[in-house]
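Case 471 in the screening queue. Each case pairs one protein sequence with one candidate compound; here the compound is pyridoxal-5'-phosphate. For every case the pipeline is the same: read the inputs, emit a complex structure as tokens, and attach any notable structural observations.

Predict complex for case 471.
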Amino acid sequence: MDPKQQSLLRKLPGVDHVIELWDKVQPVEDVPRALLVRSIRSTLDRLRTRILAGDEFPDETVLGDDQLLGLAAQAVNKSLEFNLKRVINATGVVVHTNLGRSLLPESVAKHVAEISSRYANLEFDLQKGERGSRYSCVEDILCELSGAEAAMVVNNNAGAVFLSLETLAKGKEVIVSRGELVEIGGSFRIPEVMARSGARLVEIGTTNRTHLADYEGAIRDETALFLKVHTSNYSMVGFTAEVSLKDLVALGAKYHLPVMKDLGSGNFVDFSKYGLIWEPTVQETVAAGAHVVTFSGDKMLGGPQAGIIVGRKDILERIKKNPINRALRIDKMTLAALEATLHLYRDESKAVSTIPTLRMLTLPTKVIANKAKRLLKRFRKLADDRLEAVIINASSRVGGGALPLQELPTSCVGVMIKGLSANRIDRAMREATTPVIGRIENDLFVMDMRTVQDEEINMIASTFKKTFAEA
Ligand SMILES: *Cc1c(COP(=O)(O)O)cnc(C)c1O
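Case 471 output:
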């Protein structure tokens, strides 16, 4: 070890010394003792590691009392922060699975806060004064919106698919088209979920074409179910053929076989009315005669994470009675959020204007362009010569494995700062108190304004100001 390192190591004080300093100054108040000790120890450990690694300490005052206290305070504040925190989504991906998919409307969040901080009639029938069902609060409205006879909800759609298959086809066969054996991000694959449920997958047709005769030819005594899966995250074009749900239901009726449809991202709104590519709605799927329909609560529906199952009463009765249900049970906060979100769907225009996911998907390009202009103006106000910002026209994505071909014209703001790489900006924005998640493109840090909320425009500008003030 060279003498310089040795001298630095000697200067590094012990934990007790820094605690003593801390107690005199108390840079952060009311810090639990154990957390304080842990933060100071890790601060000193980090310095020791840096010294041993031969890091240059241009100025030995780095190990002075004030500096040590400052570093300890930083470490304490970091530990006091929540790991799960709000971020600004400037990716333009509306249903961003890594960023929490859908945002709840304010009114919905308020209802969740009330239900979760008070007692509620979660499983208590107020009319009868006895134990009630956990799903009853959303069953009626789900039936009202979907036209189905019965409904229930579980933790997420993967759970809904698993539970439905386990109930209806365990130890039996399920016929699925090869063109619909989807994999969703996060290792959800239809063949694997099927295997875990105890149902046997019978693949029919070819990747690009499946005909009614393929379904009919695969029926055996062991057949329990036809399954159709919405190819939500990819699209097949060219020489393709699939059997419509209606035709499959008719075939099922002939052989007394139920038909299940996994919609993936379920929606009650026909998005083609708003200029987007048509996706089958839940109502249409129920009307086409599917016996069981499963979909997510937090994709295009814009509600909380949940798996919704609607369909025929006799089949839903069986699913509700499955003991595995208990392991996939939906929480009261989720139920409160789901019921409040579903209420908004009673008035479609209200749903589209108040549910953030729907609002962002249908946002007029002029409104997005205005947001970009406002951010640009904020940047100009910072009067930082090194910072250059431009407006870029681009495309946002729906995300959540829905509408993969949909291009949503949008406006982005691209930023460069003289002397800093786009990578540096990107990292600094991710590490900010309220992180800003964007992307790097042509050496610019690019923010898509479609998914940036109005009140976040000022926040982004302040974050830039604070982060790069004298960088
Ligand atoms: C997203 C998706 C699922 C899984 O839904 P989660 O709510 O993420 O559990 C299942 N099937 C399809 C077709 C999907 O698109």
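Case 471 observations:
- Residues 104-354 form a domain with the Aspartate Aminotransferase; domain 2 fold (CATH 3.40.640.10).
- Residues 156-158, 161, 182, 184, 188, 229-230, 232, 262, 264-265, 296, 307, 401 surround pyridoxal-5'-phosphate (CB under 6 Å).
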